[in-house]
Every structure is written in structure tokens, then in C-alpha cells.
Design brief:
binds iron/sulfur cluster, alpha/beta, about 15% strand, four-stranded parallel sheet, about 450 residues, single chain
Length: about 450
């Protein structure tokens, strides 16, 4: 393929742009182009990502066993108590269920689960085949709620009805059914805040919770990291919603603003710059000079404590080039700044579900010549990683094999990782991991191998 050419097929050309060369708005937030081998996950997966960290809920997948295995305990969300969420339950639909319908099987599954585990809450996820055969999830869940006296909530997440973003919205709809107080019940607001779009991967919620506690702010509940049925029921008592993963939870923030009058702000605790800025902006909303003073002290103390380590890694990584392909826009924006803190230039950046305003911020942040792409595929990723000579790809489980096959370093910044990358502690972990992978001695064998291959070819 010619250097500098756009490898995208005609239908994708507006979703792939190079800063300085093309001036159009990046096309995003649309369905994937059929046949393009999108890196996006399906609707069911999007919904499961958002709801899965609710620790005392049963997550029942109504569909073939394959859909359930896709999310069986591969997420790194931690719990401070209940661990029912770590199981994956499935109705295991078979051919005869597809022909005669799966509603009776679903009812039996709910009855069995209630008898065995006594959960306060069950989510029932619809999958592709359930959307095709038309099982009435709403009716089955309503009857099960009545029979067992617990909340059984359907999640309308048939895989083919849209993109991963549609799954986020399905999860937000399910959450609102949980958060909405019963008719006549008034929940008084207090001085606590909710933390939306935070899934407690490797305990990241607890890191940020401690910072906020030190400056005098308590988290009411996180949506949904380490949350429980009872705490989610009281979500409407917070005075502010802070939203980290906006792609997945801005819809709930908007609904809570409209329904309960709770204002919201977007934040990010990825990287030193965004962590400090987010803490400042949250503290400012409390109009308390003493709290602002404590916040500045905390920022200064934490930043100073990690400065020598960050300086060490920066000295080793200066001048390297990174490619980013992650789920949401907020993470891509923070990563660009975080790579800058390490002296690394971002040469390619894309997301699965970024929003227009996020792509505008990304465009402002990167240098001329940087490739920006929405909802990409392996072929485009490979082309631009090679052309821009990236040393490192940061992505998720689906991008890892591509990076290793291409012989470049890789960082996992997705839900399955087991180490925290948030806050000041996470910034050091990230720098250490980037250093370990980019400067690994293994890459010298790659050049030996490549040279060998070249010699063998006529
Ligand atoms: S819901 Fe559909 S697309 Fe998603 S895992 Fe199941 S079969 Fe695959």
C-alpha cells in the first residue's frame, strides 16, 4: 500500500483523518460499516460492562452459552464484600428453545437462582437470538419480580440492534429503573457525590475515594464499581455527579439531572495533569476555601512524591512514539496528556465510541500529521502503526494480538487488567509498564528475525 494513502474503503473515509491534511468533521457515533471487521464489542457486551460491577446482583444472560462465556469473570472489577457478580449465569438456549421460545426456560432459571442464592437483584440480558425469536423479557421479569419480591430487571441488549453504545444506553435504562425511588418516597439530598463511569478495575475507585476523603468529600455510590443494590437505591441523595467514562454513563447523568436536579461534570483520573485538574474542579463546586486549600496541598504532596520516578521513566522514554486505540474518548484524551508527561509523542489515536466534542479536543491536543480514527479495524490499525512507526500500541484485549504479531510493545488499558492505572499511584504504574514493554530486550530479537526473513527472500 502506498505510503500516505488512506486504506479505508469509501464508506469509512470520513471516519479516518490526518490532522493538517483533512479538515472535515470526523464521522463518529454511527453504526459500524457492514463487513469492516470493526474492533467494537456488541450491544450485550456494552451493557454487561456497565452493570457487571454491581457486586450483589445476579447477571443472567438469556441466550446461547457463548454470549455468557464472553464476559465470564474476565473483568478486573474488585469488590469490598459480595461476589455474586463474579459468576456468569446463562439460560443456555438450544435449537428447541429457538423453535418453541425460551420464556419458560428463563422463568425456571430465575426461580432456581432465587432459591439457591437469594439475590436482592437480577439483571436479565437479552442477546441476539432472543431478539430474533422475540421472547417477552419485560413480561417474564415483571412476573418474576412479583413472585419473588425482588427486583428483576430486563436489559434490552440484543447484540445486533446497534453498536456497543446502544448497550451502554440499555444499561443506563436498567439503572434508572433501580435508582428511581418508589412512588411517594422522598430521598433528601446531602453533601455526598456519585462517581459515574467508574468500574473499580483493580481497586481504582478506592484510590480516588481516598483522595476525595482527604479533602473532605464522601462518595455516596459509584456507578457501578463496587456498588450494591441498597447503595444504588440511594443514588439520588448526592448533590453532584462526577462522570469519568462519559461514553457509557453521560446518559444516566443527564437523566439524573432532569429527574432529580443533580448537576454533573466530566472528570478523568488518568494521568497526573487530569487527576489534579479533576480534584480541583470537584472541590471548587463546594465553594469552601478550606477545602480548596486541602486540595492544593494534596496535589502538591502527591505530585512531589512521584516526581523522581516519573522523571526516571521520562528519561528512558523520551522521543518514543505511541498509537492509541481505546473504548471511549475521555480515556484517549487523558492518555495523550499522560504520554506527553512521559515525553512520548502520540502519532495515531482512535476510539470505539468517541463523541464529536471528544474528537475535537483530541484534534486540538495532537500534532499535525497525527492520524485520528473512529471505530477502526485491524487493517487500518496495522497500516497506520507501520506508517507512523509507532513503538507502542495502547488498547484492549482485541488489539493485543495485533501489536504482538507486528512486533511492537503493547499496554492493556481495558477492563480485564489487574493493576490500577488511576490517580497518582496509577500514573507511576503506567509509566513503569510503558517502560517495561517499550524498553524490553525482546524487541532486539524482532529485528534479528526480520533481517533473517529478508535474507531468505529472493
Ligand atoms: S449478543 Fe450476539 S453479538 Fe453479542 S456475544 Fe451474543 S451472539 Fe455475539
Amino acid at each position: 500500500m502506498e505510503k500516505g494513502s488512506n486504506p479505508a474503503i469509501e464508506e469509512r473515509k470520513d471516519s479516518v483523518q490526518t490532522k493538517g491534511e483533512t479538515k472535515m468533521q470526523l464521522k463518529c457515533n454511527t453504526d459500524s460499516v457492514a463487513g469492516c471487521v470493526s474492533q467494537r464489542a456488541c450491544v450485550y457486551c456494552g451493557a454487561r460492562v456497565v452493570l457487571n460491577p454491581i457486586t450483589d446482583a445476579i447477571h443472567l444472560v438469556h441466550g446461547p452459552i457463548g454470549c455468557a462465556s464472553y464476559t465470564w469473570d474476565i473483568r478486573g472489577s474488585l469488590t469490598s464484600g459480595a461476589d455474586l457478580f463474579r459468576f456468569s449465569f446463562s439460560t443456555d438456549l438450544q435449537e428447541m428453545d429457538v423453535i418453541f421460545g425460551g420464556e419458560k426456560k428463563l422463568t425456571r432459571a430465575i426461580d432456581d437462582l432465587v432459591e439457591k442464592y437469594h439475590p436482592p437483584l437480577i439483571f436479565v440480558y437479552s442477546t441476539c437470538i432472543v431478539g430474533v425469536i422475540g421472547d417477552d423479557l419485560e413480561a417474564v421479569c415483571k412476573e418474576a419480580s412479583r413472585k419473588h419480591g425482588i427486583q428483576v430487571i430486563p436489559v434490552q441488549s440484543s447484540g445486533f440492534i446497534g453498536s456497543k453504545s446502544a448497550g451502554y444506553k440499555a444499561a443506563c435504562d436498567a439503572l434508572m429503573r433501580l435508582i428511581e425511588p418508589p412512588p411517594g418516597e422522598i430521598i433528601e439530598q446531602d453533601k455526598t457525590i456519585n462517581y459515574l463511569g467508574e468500574f473499580n478495575l483493580a481497586g481504582e475507585l478506592w484510590i480516588i475515594q481516598n483522595y476525595l476523603k482527604e479533602i473532605g468529600i464522601d462518595i455516596n455510590v459509584a456507578l457501578t464499581g463496587d456498588s450494591r443494590f441498597e447503595t444504588l437505591k440511594l443514588a439520588s441523595k448526592a448533590c453532584l455527579n462526577i462522570v469519568q467514562c462519559a461514553g457509557s454513563m453521560i446518559y444516566t447523568a443527564e437523566q439524573m439531572k432532569e429527574r432529580f436536579g443533580i448537576p454533573y461534570m466530566t472528570v478523568s483520573f488518568i494521568g497526573i495533569e487530569d487527576t489534579s485538574e479533576s480534584l480541583r474542579r470537584i472541590a471548587q463546586t463546594f465553594l469552601d476555601p478550606e477545602m480548596m486549600h486541602r486540595t492544593e496541598e494534596l496535589i502538591q504532596e502527591k505530585t512531589a512524591a512521584i516526581a523522581p520516578e516519573i522523571a526516571f521513566y521520562r528519561s528512558k522514554l523520551q522521543g518514543k512514539k505511541a498509537a492509541i486505540y481505546v473504548g471511549g474518548g475521555f480515556k484517549a484524551i487523558s492518555l495523550i496528556k499522560q504520554f506527553r508527561e512521559l515525553g512520548i509523542e502520540v502519532v495515531m489515536v482512535g476510539t470505539q465510541t468517541g463523541r464529536q466534542e471528544e474528537y475535537e479536543t483530541i484534534t486540538d491536543l495532537v500534532k499535525e500529521g497525527t492520524v485520528i480514527m473512529d471505530d477502526t479495524n485491524p487493517s487500518e490499525l496495522e497500516k497506520f502503526i507501520l506508517e507512523k512507526e509507532a513503538d507502542l500500541l495502547v488498547g484492549g484485549v482485541k488489539e493485543r494480538p495485533l501489536a504482538y504479531k507486528m512486533g511492537i510493545a503493547f499496554i492493556d488499558h481495558n477492563h480485564d487488567r489487574k493493576h490500577p492505572l488511576s490517580g497518582y499511584a496509577g500514573a507511576v504504574n503506567f509509566a513503569e509498564e510503558v517502560y517495561a514493554t517499550v524498553c524490553s530486550p525482546v524487541w532486539k530479537y524482532r529485528s534479528i528475525m526480520t533481517a533473517g526473513e529478508k535474507e531468505e527472500k529472493p
